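Researcher: Can you fold this with protoporphyrin IX containing FE in place?
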Amino acid sequence: MLTDAQRDIVKATVPLLETGGEALTTHFYRVMLGEYPQVRPLFNQAHQTAGTQPRALANAVLMYARHIDRLEALGPLASQIVNKHVALQILPEHYPIVGACLLRAIREVLGAEVATDAVIDAWAAAYQQLADILIGAEAAVYDALAAAPGGWRGGRAFTVARKVRESSEITSFHLVRVDGGPVVDFKPGQYIGLKLVVGGQEVRRNYSLSAAPNGASYRISVKREPEGVVSTHLHDQVGEGDVLELFPPAGDFTLDASLRPLVLISGGVGITPTLAMLESALADSQREVVFVHYARNAEVHAFGGVLDDWARQHADRLRVHTVYEQPAPAGPRAPAAIGRPAADQLAAWLPPGRDFDAYFLGPKPFMAFIKRTLQDMGVPPERARYEFFGPAEQLG
Ligand SMILES: Cc1cc2nc3c(=O)[nH]c(=O)nc-3n(C[C@H](O)[C@H](O)[C@H](O)COP(=O)(O)OP(=O)(O)OC[C@H]3O[C@@H](n4cnc5c(N)ncnc54)[C@H](O)[C@@H]3O)c2cc1C
Ligand code: HEM
């Protein structure tokens, strides 16, 4: 139980965390991944190297320390963490490991003079309070997923029913349960977790579901990353008939029910959740939809054919605009524009009243540009939603 005095101590450490939070979490990961091999497979090594995961954790710890009087102020951050944890199957028994490593990192980075026993005790109590909140919220999601029709708990075996090349670098995998049973519904925009063994090492990754829910199968669409452990394994080693282990769908970047026009903007493989959103919106509503997609060139442009079909079938309410950064090589369809994303172009394509719901995803600089452009158009932040294919970062 966190006492008032401990709460004050935690709040007093906010300035220290503001300047040293990332050094602390970087040290924390070094200790944890070095000394606790059982949690290593849960973490993506590339995110450690890039520093995005230590930054995301430092940001969460800082937000928590700032808002310790009003935990509800964590709002969307808590739900984002819970969803990410659920899709990677983080379990209650993992929390004491993180707690022990965090306290050790506080002690070692801040030094004995600052990290006194009272500070460590306060942080131990504060960590436990946050851990209890997350464990409780995660248990509720795990229980709901297990109880839902077609749902399950933990990993479940799926067969690759079809493997489809969508472009020179994106390939889709259509997945059905090995036992042929139904699959739990998901909200368009959500993702699954994959657990694999590659080169003798267990690894976990998230992939957005790229087709609307249908009760019987899931589709993921994976971009081959240069030297990427899981994506190259999926592209090169996994074929039709092979079995993959899936964790059930999670994620809070989901299409809200609304009558407003819908704007979906994507760069590269960021198209995947927006495809599921588009397919669902076309099936379930009469909303006007503007779908803008940026690809490097025609060769890497995925899903052009199905988008052409949908644009023809729903000509009264769907507009698709594709932009290629490079004019060559030529492809089967002419893009609406060639070059870098431009604000005036978007301004001309998006619904003129600006009273719409926007969802966007792509590389970080691309998302920063879209966020700024929508802001300049007067779109309120709560109607301009995005997520990262990795730990959440600050966007400008
Ligand atoms: C919510 C969510 C949804 C996602 N949806 C999709 C999706 O729909 N489609 C999709 O394709 N991806 C998606 N991703 C990304 C996906 O989870 C993987 O991160 C992606 O496939 C790369 O994984 P990998 O194992 O192939 O590459 P990794 O091995 O993780 O490497 C990624 C990149 O980092 C580089 N790298 C790795 N280790 C190091 C190192 N030590 N030093 C320097 N560089 C290094 C690699 O060369 C590679 O280019 C999603 C991610 C999230 C979080
Ligand atoms: C109070 C405790 C914890 C906090 C505050 C916390 C916070 C976070 C945050 C902020 C993220 C990034 C979310 C995102 O933006 O996508 C994250 C992701 C993650 N967390 Fe936690 N977490 C906690 C406990 C744990 C535990 C106990 C484990 C397991 C050992 C764990 C494993 C992970 C993993 C594997 C990811 C994804 C990492 C990646 O993408 O590389 N977390 N967590």
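Model: Folded with protoporphyrin IX containing FE in place. The two ends are 37 Å apart (CA to CA).
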